[in-house]
Amino acid sequence: MKLKVKFLKLLAGRPVAILHKNFAEKASIHTDDRIYIEKRGKKLAAVVDIATGFLKENEIVVSSEIQKIISLREKSVVEVELAVKPESLGFIQKKLSGGRLNRQELEKIMADIVNNVLTESEIAYFISGICKSDMSIEEIKDMTLAVLNTGKRLNLKGKVIDKHSIGGIPGRTTPIIVSICSTAGLLMPKTSSRAITTPSGTADAVEVICKVDFTIKEIKKILKKTNACLVWGGSLNIAPADDKIIQVERLLNLAPEAQLLSSIMAKKLAVNAKVVLIEIPYGRNAKVTRKKAEELKKKFKKLAKYFRIKLKCILKRTEEPIGNGIGPLLEISDVIKVLKGESECYKLRGRALESAGQLLELTGKAKKGKGMEMAEKILDSGKAYEKFLAIVRAQRGSINNIEKIKAKYKRDIRADKRGKIRDIRIKQLNNLARIAGCPLDKAAGIYLHKHLNNIVKKGEKILTIYSQNKTELREALRYYRKTKPIRF
Amino acid sequence: MKLKVKFLKLLAGRPVAILHKNFAEKASIHTDDRIYIEKRGKKLAAVVDIATGFLKENEIVVSSEIQKIISLREKSVVEVELAVKPESLGFIQKKLSGGRLNRQELEKIMADIVNNVLTESEIAYFISGICKSDMSIEEIKDMTLAVLNTGKRLNLKGKVIDKHSIGGIPGRTTPIIVSICSTAGLLMPKTSSRAITTPSGTADAVEVICKVDFTIKEIKKILKKTNACLVWGGSLNIAPADDKIIQVERLLNLAPEAQLLSSIMAKKLAVNAKVVLIEIPYGRNAKVTRKKAEELKKKFKKLAKYFRIKLKCILKRTEEPIGNGIGPLLEISDVIKVLKGESECYKLRGRALESAGQLLELTGKAKKGKGMEMAEKILDSGKAYEKFLAIVRAQRGSINNIEKIKAKYKRDIRADKRGKIRDIRIKQLNNLARIAGCPLDKAAGIYLHKHLNNIVKKGEKILTIYSQNKTELREALRYYRKTKPIRF
Prior knowledge:
Two copies of one chain form a homodimer. Chain A starts with a strand and ends with a strand. The first copy, chain A, has four domains: about 1-80, Barwin-like endoglucanases (Beta Barrel); about 85-135, no CATH class; about 160-235 and about 265-395, Pyrimidine Nucleoside Phosphorylase, Chain A, domain 2, CATH 3.40.1030; about 405-485, Aldehyde Oxidoreductase, domain 3 (Alpha-Beta Complex). By secondary structure, chain A is an alpha/beta fold. Chain A has 19 helices and 19 strands. In chain A, helix 7 packs across helix 14. Chains A and B meet through helix 1, strand 4, strand 6, helix 3 and helix 5 of A and helix 1, strand 4, strand 6, helix 3 and helix 5 of B.
């Protein structure tokens, strides 16, 4: 079948070809099918989109990727035919019907995900497959290695340490832990994610005061200066397959265990971590129940043993945000308060000290049972704050930036009666902060004046909503009234 | 977040908005997310695509759908925010984790599929969900009604009959059955599909000699003239949700039982059929095994009872193509030979007579056990052929069209030794015909000179490959040599 070329000057990330609806119907070609486009012996597989309006039945619109690779001109005539399906689709089918994939098959799938050979729908089928059947530890191990192999590595010498929190709970312990541990002489190249379903990831919060996207070479320079960094993992490309899978999971808020485990382990392996701490908050408002948390712990331990990583899990009932602020600016402000020794965020301080203490013990910096004491000493000496400032400087920023951005609009929510706070719904608060403009509007978010079990007088401030935009503030207020995230 | 509008003059079938990669990363917006685009109080949800090249970070490219609905101009500034997810996603999640969906939930999913609210990835999750858990008959019934409700109906009075074959086997019995039954006075408004994975659907074959896409009003006129029609179901929009689901299933060649059953039943209900015959070919080269065929039969019976349809299933071991031709022109030529009484395609004749006979018995036109005899009489009298010509005329065509199209290239495949044909691999033959250019090149395809268990002399013709294109013919030959679909 011959078609005339029209250009779409977009780089879509993968070769995209748009066919006219009528032509596609007759040729039995559908959205997301793959076709070969051929011109003078050069042949390329492209994913099909279908449209009308801009193109005629005998035309094909191609994205810049295709134009470049097979050097086409406008109105060139190309030969089009249905392409053979990628081999990895067979493996996905196997997983979806409950089969076990081996390392080679998982590697092919991951490579095809990273190279944009597989479409979002096909990745959705893969995710459904791993949701469906419980993967064995052996298979999760293979998937970890497959994910690891698609990405770059930070080849560091020395005893690298790392931490991870099974997310969903606002409150940034990470910058505090990193500052304390690197002050103690530990090497902590921390890579973090941006917000996925929460209003702010660690990377979004740190970005308020400094850059977070660096190349591997730049990160090595930062580490030389400060023994630590606080960067966005996405810019490093250490687990690109996983990044893509998480995108497709978000559509249904899925988090299959096998993917969670392999994702975290691959990222730790990519930075060559030898000692790892995993925080698993559990409870009715957290991502997992206590039982699930215990199961995850067991599996993390098994994987760590296989990869020869010293790993500890901290399980902690968590029923409310750990800090007072929710949103990039408000969360990094909490962090700075704790580092400066201000008393407001005692819960955030406690959690950070506990995790830092564990890492100090695991690495032998502190004796068993003495880690938290040591962490507290470092924090109270002001040295952790100095270290934090050094990291921010090395990442080309300044904490003075927090003074420069300010939300245009704010609104206090006050108690309409006296009472004790009995429930703080984290999910609804997260949604509320997102409606207010997080994570893109750095200054948007929520400040909690009260916490669980606090007694509140009538008319007292419970929380303040910040927003850059009147409409968003209005919608946030409407959402607050509808969902009542804080209950007496 | 404010962005400047740029136009993409395409109708993508649903509102599509393209964001710049850097902007999307910072805003935590990903491919297939939904955003609201707002301008002067008018607000629309659009699905996100991500690109670079053609647009700047502060720009948003919108498809013509959006431009029209919220009347934008180039360089208008719009407000963009993450949209609330459609309710149906929650139901899909429920199904994926093994829950049971009720009628209202299935209806919401089907409506969102038809209205392009759900993306291909989300439909893939739904399909995975129904693949995963065996749906009860009750749930399949609800799904049938949900599919039915998304489409149009052909409200016909009188005893409408219909037939369906669980596809995959080339050979068109349908036009023969329709011609015989309507000659006997039965009302048979036959809607057929185009090729899905085979080289030709009934609609593709019939399209060689006449039009197949008509509106419901036009079909009623055709039925008035001839008591029957042979049209493409897709143009009628009788089960658009199902059409979309099948597209996404094709990516992995999935055919979950619940979807198969609800799809067929919904289409029969849409034409108001009272008597239905289902052909279920089984065997190593067919879509299903004998056991699976028996199970399907039971479920069809249960559904038919619920919908008060008189239904019969014919289970038949089928190990090779039913006719000689594979491909639109070659298959319709077989049909005409049988209708004219030529002796070549005795197997196709036999199968068609058997099915027509069953329908004559089910409707009481023939006594029990005498249907096939009656069908044979009608066929041999030449009246069925006359009826067929009348249908073709009513559908604005002529069988002389088969003389007008002819494949440019052909190649005979001859036996390289003497022997008995022991295996004819249908799947490989189907692929072969598609490589040769089917279904778009109507004249492309395969003609089988020999069938299963035939003794072949060395040098004797086994099959002929037809193609419009030298390259395609060459590739078809290469595929034939590689896969050897016919084995001695």
